Amino acid sequence: MHAAERERLIVEAIGPTGFVSYRDLEAMLDASPATIRRDLSRLESEGRIVRVHGGARLADGAEAPARPVGFHLSGTPFEQAITENLAAKQAIGRAAAALCQPGEGIMLDGGTTTLQMCPHLAGLDLQVLTNSLYIVNALLPQPGTRILVPSGAVFREQNIILAAAGEESMPRFHAPKLFMGAASVGAAGVMQADVVLVAAERRLIDRAEQVILLVDSSKFTTRSGTIVCGLDEVDTLITDAGIPAAAAAAIRDAGVQLVIAE
C-alpha cells in the first residue's frame, strides 16, 4: 500500500468523531508502527492532523470525509449481495451454526453469509451480539435467543450499526466464538472494502476466543481491500466446494481449519 493511500485511509478513519486511535490504525493498515508514525508525521506537518495521546485528531480547520447517518459503505449493497451464491451461503451458514453450543455467547458480524446461520440457531438459547439489523430481525422470533447490539450510526444500505474508528461502542461482552464474513480473502489476509468495517471488526476480534470466517468460494480472488486481519488470526474458515485448490492449500498451510460445507 502506497503512502498516499495510507494517508487517505487515516484521514477517512478519523471520521465524524475527529479522532482515531493508534490501535485502530495498526489494525486497519498493512504497515509497521514505524511507517504509521511517519505517515502521521507527514500529515501533521501538512497541517491536516495533530498527534495526541493514544492517536490522532483533525487539525483545527481541517476537513475529513463526512460519515453521516445513512452514508453508503463501499462494497456491494446488501439486497444485491444476499441473492449472490445463495445456495453456498445457506450451506455455510448451516455448517457454522453446527459449531455453536447450547447456552453459549457468540458474536455475529453483519453479512449475507452470517445471516444464513440464524434459522439454525433456534432452540440453542444463545446470547448473540450483532451489529446487523437483518440478523436482529431474523433472531427476534426465537424466544430463547438473547440479542445485544452496539451503539453507533445505522448505515441503511447495509442495515448495519457502526461507530467511527476510535469510538468505543461495544457492550462489555466476551464470547468464545466470532462468526464473520469478508469482501475477499487472499495471501495478505482477510479484507473488507470499507475502512469503517475494518475498525468495527477489529473490535469484535479483540473480544473473541475463536475467529470463524464464513466466505463462499467467490471471495478467493485477487481483489484488493483494507486488511482486517492476517490468516494467522483466523481459527476456522468455512466455505463451499468451489474454493480453488491453491487457496485451500494456502489456508491449511496457515494453520487454519478448513471446513467445506455441503
Automatic annotation (TrEMBL):
Keywords: DNA-binding, Transcription, Transcription regulation. InterPro entries: Carb_Metab_HTH_regulators (IPR050313), DeoR-like_C (IPR014036), DeoR_HTH (IPR001034), NagB/RpiA_transferase-like (IPR037171), Tscrpt_reg_HTH_DeoR_CS (IPR018356), WH-like_DNA-bd_sf (IPR036388), WH_DNA-bd_sf (IPR036390). It holds the Pfam family HTH_DeoR. Residues 3-58 form the HTH deoR-type domain. SMART domains: DeoRC, HTH_DEOR. This is DeoR family ulaG and ulaABCDEF operon transcriptional repressor. It comes from Novosphingobium capsulatum.
